[in-house]
Model the fold of this input.
Amino acid sequence: MRNRNLWLALIGLLAVLALWVDFTETRIEIGFLGLQREIRTVLGLDLQGGIQILLEADVPPNQLVDRGNLEDTRRIIENRVNALGVTEPVVQIAGTRRIVVELPGVTNLEQAVNTIKQTGLLEFVDAGATPIPEGTTIRTSLDLPITGTAPVTATPSLAPTPSLTGTAEVTGTAPLSPTEPVYRTIMTGRNLRSARPQLDEFRQPEVAFTLDAEGTRLFAEYTSRNVGRYLCIVLDKKVISCPVIQEPITQGQGVIRMGSGSTLADAEALAVTLRYGALPVPLKIVDTRNIGPTLGQESIRRSLIAGIIGFATVALFMILYYRVPGVLAVLALSLYTALVFAIFKLLPVTLTLPGIAGFVLSIGMAVDANILIFERLKEELRAGRDLAMAIDYGFERAWPSIRDSNISTLITCAILYVFGLNFGASMVRGFALTLAIGVAASLFTGIWVTRTFLHALLDRISARGHQGWFGL
Amino acid sequence: MIDIIGKRYWYFALSLLVIVPGLISLALYGLPLAIDYTGGSMLELRLPSGAAPSSEEVIGIVGQATGFPTADIRAQPSLQGTLIIRTREMDAATQARVMEALRARYGDVVLERFESVGPTVGAEVTRGALVAVAMASLAIMLYLTFAFRQVPHAFRYGVAAVLALLHDVAVVVGTASIFGKVFGWEVDALFLTAVLTIIGFSVHDSIVVFDRIRENLLRYRGEPYERIVNHSILQTLDRSLNTQLTLIFTLVALLLFGGTTIRQFIATLLIGMISGTYSSIFNAAPILVVWEKREWRTWFRRPAEQPVP
Done:
């Protein structure tokens, strides 16, 4: 009896916690656990609108793709996508040769594709007597047709960037006025042979590079005539660093010092960009999905209505058919709903339309455990058992079939999840995950919570003379 | 007492009555596979009110914008002002051209959904789908054989549950083929999700009946197997129907009020769930009896060989 009250209190506490999580959008930090979490509803692309692009390594099907190269590629794409200013872009490796890019809220597919496909253009630019601050976007002589130098396209399989000035627009910098100076491009990344990160004698990160024959000649010529002046390293028209030329570089080797506060990882990232100019693994687009924002809004509204109506009909049915236990089951079901939604927000689970369907469906399943138990309960009561004993018997006897059926559902969920994982089919994955969480939670609420409620009720009323309460 | 087991062949016949037309349709027309499996592009558009284009007109415009032969383009305008266009795979630039051409003709056309799947991905998804169904069936069969290991012939329970499950897959796939022909349904990635969910639920129902048989076999030792099975079905009938009802409530709510993009998914689930409950009660459990009595030995015997009364 005292035990029971303790359980009731715990269930009540859990309900309050779950409800709190359901209705807040905040950040929690639990210091002593080192736990830090943002509590919020994460909506999938189909609900919030946006673009999903699946990229695949454009190499023969039997050729293996190096994991490290794929990871480098992912990082470069992530950088490019970040320039779009999307709130939460997702760039993930899927399987062994694919990368999934998800851009919530983005509607312009063409712009997104161009951003992902853009080739990084490395230039060595003559800055003259004064250095250009890092991060400045500049114009170079490469933009002008007179130089005759073709833009670098390191990966032939990808379309060349239509216009390089377009990059400036994408990064969100204000358009350049025509009066701004145009810097002369000495050489492009095409003449770079290798680039690797290292630490100098003061343990500062830097990138060492070597040039090919033409690059060595161009570089030697230029540096011997311009000692004391500045040479800027520019990537996609953005100044990375502007070292001063201390002596002529004739051997075709040099280093790029990183700005203060840089780490070896930064040097590594720069080396990767320098080395490849573009992506280390050539990519092609194999799958595109683009959902307009209105469709998503509509879907959320409709799912909500469907969920409420579904819940209400189930609740009504349970109460009409099973009476008092039905009321308790509906209470447990409310706790279930609050609990599962709280888990979604805490993990977090990305909610998609099929995911919500899985959730609503799991409400129906959560009731199944109760129905099984209550039918058993009725049987035991009909067999003339005492009520308290009938409850325990009902639960005990119903348990094997509940266990077996839920395990087989979980097996299916696991197979679905793996299937979804392999193909970047986030729809299928979302459904499997929400259904599995629902099944697990329903075992707790459907069995433990309902049972505690029933016993707590029996402690307070006399069982005799209340047979009608149990729908008999 | 209702005798379900005694009329088992009637119930098998009813199942065949539902399955066979679907299988015929499947043989004749195949499955209406969506771009998820075949590769291609799909645009779902919302037209400004008043615009009611014919599909021929849309196909003409899209053909001009993409350069695809018109045989590769299908257009489905609806009365609610939406327009669905399906073509072979197109890239982002082509999609932008299509939108431009449509806007030039109809005014403010809103792109609600655009999907484009390459052929290799489609083939992989198809293969993965078959593997997923096969693996799920196998895993469930193994689990059931394990769960019923204390009952004689535990393996039969696993096989009977999987046969009932295949029955439901056949019903759903056959229906999809017929509805594809009649209502223009499409079998997409969600369809597979629906099928796998149905498999899970079908096994749910079978297990509940089997579990009762397991219990009753111990309780009523010496009773004929047939009677025990029939009794077990009747004992669990209330539960099966009530669970079914609550599921139908939620599914119908989703069907009527849920998002349009998952309507077909929900309808498939609904058909499958009903089939799942039916097959568990009227197929899975009777199959156990057929197996126990080895009735197949008499299936092809002429009636004349039976003693004439």
Notes: Chain B has ten helices and four strands. The radius of gyration of chain B is 25 Å. The domain at 40-117 of chain B is CATH 3.30.70.3400 (Alpha-Beta Plaits). The first strand of chain B starts at residue 40 and ends at 46.
